[in-house]
Amino acid sequence: MKRVAIQADDFDISAELAALEALGGGGVASFTGIVRGEGGLVALELEHYPAMTQRQAERIAEEAMARWPLLGLSIIHRHGRLLPGERIVFVGTASRHRAAALEGCAFLIDWLKSRAPFWKKAHYADGAGAWVAPRAEDEAKAQGWDR
Amino acid sequence: MAAVTLVYFAWVREAIGRDEERVELASPEETIAELVARLAAQGGGYAEALADPDRLRAALDQQFVGFDQAIGTARELALFPPVTGG
Description:
The complex is a heterodimer.
Chain A: E1 2-7, H1 13-21, E2 27-34, E3 41-48, H2 50-67, E4 70-78, E5 80-82, E6 87-95, H3 98-115, E7 118-124, E8 129-131, H4 136-145
Parallel strand pairs in A: 1-4
Antiparallel strand pairs in A: 2-6, 3-5, 3-7, 4-6, 7-8
Chain B: E1 3-8, H1 10-16, E2 20-24, H2 32-40, H3 44-50, E3 57-60, E4 63-65, E5 76-80
Parallel strand pairs in B: 1-5
Antiparallel strand pairs in B: 1-2, 3-4, 3-5
Helix pairs in contact in B: 1-3, 2-3
């Protein structure tokens, strides 16, 4: 099972986890990213490059399946205008044992953070908007998986 | 003469004021760096968005590439800031 969804709509985490649990492995790992409402942020706008996002995410999903003995994985990334507390991203992996599930999950979210063509714009209560700057730490984490 | 479709994202798109346009290449050997410098020289929003290539990333036909890459027969060149997904 290899599920990649780039969508505006929210998703059902229980259903996503249940699909991974049904693959018969001994472990399922997941990461969910949520919009933080700090610093007066009222909304986060996610822009992406549709022609590239799906293709790149499918490629990285294949790489994860090749690098770790995964029974399945799910990548869901939302775009559009999201409010504080809303889910942005979900990554889930299933494997016979926990190490592959946890490592595969970390690899996928680190990749999404610094290699997937998404851009975040923060909107504040006073009407100001600012494009979020990339963090050097995120790039370093992604490079840590390169080989 | 060969041409390429340029697509812009995030603040690059906002500064230039459009999300895509078709541009004639100076030659098939023209590199991304050369085209970006040529566009930045138009001034205004182009200069604002493209004057400092260190702040930009590029994808040629939906693949990340370096700025020394020749555009050649590619159909689409995307210019954008470093990504901030996840």
